[in-house]
Amino acid sequence: MYRWSTLALPQVEWPTCHVPPTRFRHLHTTVDEPELPRAREVGYTTWQSIEAGPMVRLGWDWALIDDGIVVLADPLGINSNLCFLQEREPIHASRAAAHLNAIVHALPWQATILKALRRLRADGTQAPPSRARRRRDDGLERPPSPSGR
Prior knowledge:
The protein has helices at 3-7, 93-105, 109-122; strands at residues 12-15, 24-32, 41-49, 57-66, 69-72, 79-80, 82-86, 89-90, 133-134, 140-141. By secondary structure, it is α+β, with helices and mostly antiparallel strands. Strands 2, 3, 4, 5 and 6 form a five-stranded antiparallel beta sheet that branches. The chain has a three-stranded mixed beta sheet with strand order 1-7-8, with no helix packed on it.
């Protein structure tokens, strides 16, 4: 799953006067080659709502900038199929970003990414980040070794 999988979902219109979904589950996290000068590791993570009602998905780029410090790489770049409405009209993108940031900051996403990174390192044969494979549940798995095991 990449950004397109979030953006390809049907849009979910959400009036700003209603409380947005708050319960999400981690779908996957990827690790990519760092392009940011201060980042040790970078990637993308996707979360999906687990509440009744329309499926809402969020995805965003993250960066590990120091041991144990994971940040949003672009706080204005959270992808979602949520469309926040005020008086039946979509709100401005900067206001929507504030709503999305509030949802993201309530999730345990940093701990989930750190756990996935620790597991990748603990495997002992860490592949280059660009070869990391995605899993739908709680993290990363290393690619198969050349011997097939």
